[in-house]
Specification:
alpha/beta, Rossmann fold, six-stranded mixed β-sheet, four-stranded antiparallel β-sheet, 36% helix
């Protein structure tokens, strides 16, 4: 059953058409990766789904209900959380305080929110010892874990992840992807935008490739990765072959 349906989505910034009729679906419980070169429209797609940009045309259905045009806060309350590119950890707040900002239930007590934030440290043990440290003191990989934990505080049914491995050392990238796999095991559907096509396809159930704001192709990960023409055209060519 489709949890998310994107139909003929079009987004423009002034005269620039960033998305040109993008359509795809995501089944509940799946991990789907959205691939493509810089400027292909991947981040814009996530921002449209989470309400950060307004579509010019098209529809977005979450659990069968239209969400295009709703505020980001309303979309979070429906069960969609967005972890944007760049981590965006607040340096003047502690790790715990950063995570608590992700709570979407305004009726929850501060004690309840703190308990839920503490529970995130069971999922992310690498940042537990830094719970009361300021965000700026953490490494890039740890900050990425804080950002994902903050997104999970909303208890999302769908988690949108934008370039979670960007700028991280290879060993940290492995740790981040292990966390994504654990999140998926817990029942969260994941839409992943990722520069590391090899890692993304290894964990995905399905992949889509964007090119210049259009959906160029979609398929199962094995098919996408095994086709040399697809790797050369969309997934980094020689770099992709070197990582196999």
């Amino acid at each position: 059953m489709a949890l998310l349906e994107v139909r003929d989505l079009r987004v423009s910034f002034g005269e620039v058409e960033a998305l040109r009729g993008v359509s795809f679906t995501i089944d509940e419980g799946a991990v789907v990766t959205l691939l493509g070169s810089n400027g292909a429209g991947k981040s814009t797609t996530l921002r449209a789904i989470s309400g950060l940009v307004a579509p010019r045309a098209g529809s977005i259905l979450f659990d069968g209900k239209p969400i295009a045009g709703l505020s980001p806060r309303a979309i979070v309350k429906l069960g969609v959380a967005h972890v944007p590119e760049g981590r965006r950890v607040f340096p003047g707040l502690t790790v715990r305080e950063n995570i608590m900002l992700g709570a979407s239930n305004g009726n929850a007590s501060s004690a309840t929110i703190q308990r839920e934030a503490d529970a995130m440290f069971d999922v992310f043990p690498d940042i537990k010892r830094s719970a009361d440290s300021l965000g700026w003191t953490l490494s890039g990989g740890q900050q990425q874990m804080v950002a994902v934990a903050r997104g999970l505080m909303a208890k999302p049914r769908l988690l949108l992840l934008d370039e979670p491995s960007l700028g991280l050392a290879p060993v940290i990238v492995q740790a981040v992807f292990q966390i994504i796999a654990e999140i998926h095991k817990r029942g969260t559907t994941v839409l992943l935008v990722e520069q590391n096509a090899h890692m993304a396809l290894k964990m995905a159930d399905w992949g889509y490739v964007l090119e210049s704001g259009r959906l160029a192709l979609g398929g199962d990960p094995a098919t996408l990765w095994s086709d040399e023409r697809i790797r050369d055209a969309y997934l980094g060519g020689g770099q992709a072959r070197a990582s196999t």
